[in-house]
Specification:
By secondary structure, the chain is of the alpha+beta class. It contains five helices and four strands; from the N terminus they run H-H-H-E-H-E-E-H-E. It has two domains: about 5-45, Winged helix-like DNA-binding domain superfamily/Winged helix DNA-binding domain (Arc Repressor Mutant, subunit A, Orthogonal Bundle), CATH 1.10.10.10; about 55-135, 2-Layer Sandwich (Alpha-Beta Plaits). The chain is about 40% helix and about 20% strand. One of its GO terms (biological process) is response to amino acid.
Length: about 150
């Protein structure tokens, strides 16, 4: 990647609906050369997807819960099983395996506290390999961005 690729990525992260003509103009390339670079970034997996970011509150997901999960013991099969369950759970928008005292951090989006309680009972409290979990209910989102600094 060179500085032009980085500039293209930075612009696409801010607005992936920008026209190829405007993108090319912003980075100082001809439209065909710019399109070729964007296609290459996609084929290399650098650009993973083009998505629409939905406001969770506008679609009824008013509660954002950060959940710290501690698994009973360090076993890869148990970690893999937990990861598969979290990937299948519609309430879980993000799941990270982490280092330190806890094993996983989840971001859970639900419409209300009753929905979170149902999720916690079904997916967490019923898991025999889970030592403990801690729920942190977000009061408000102070910062959210999708782009990474390049």
């Amino acid at each position: 990647m060179d500085r032009i690729d980085i500039k293209i990525l930075n612009l696409l992260q801010k607005d992936n609906r920008i026209s190829n003509q405007d993108l090319a103009e912003a980075v100082g390339l001809s439209p065909p050369a710019c399109l070729k670079r964007v296609r290459k970034l996609r084929s290399q997996g650098i650009i993973m997807a083009d998505v629409a970011i939905v406001n969770p509150e506008k679609v009824g997901h008013r509660i954002n819960v950060i959940v710290e999960v501690e698994i009973e013991r360090d076993q890869l099969d148990i970690y893999d099983q937990f990861s598969r369950k979290m990937n299948a759970a519609p309430e879980v928008s993000q799941c990270y395996q982490v280092t330190g005292e806890i094993d996983f951090v989840l971001v859970v989006l639900v419409p209300d506290i009753q929905a979170y309680e149902a999720f916690a009972r079904r997916e967490l409290a019923s898991n025999p390999h889970l030592r403990k979990f801690r729920s942190l209910i977000s009061l408000r989102r102070e910062k959210f961005k999708t782009e990474i600094s390049l």
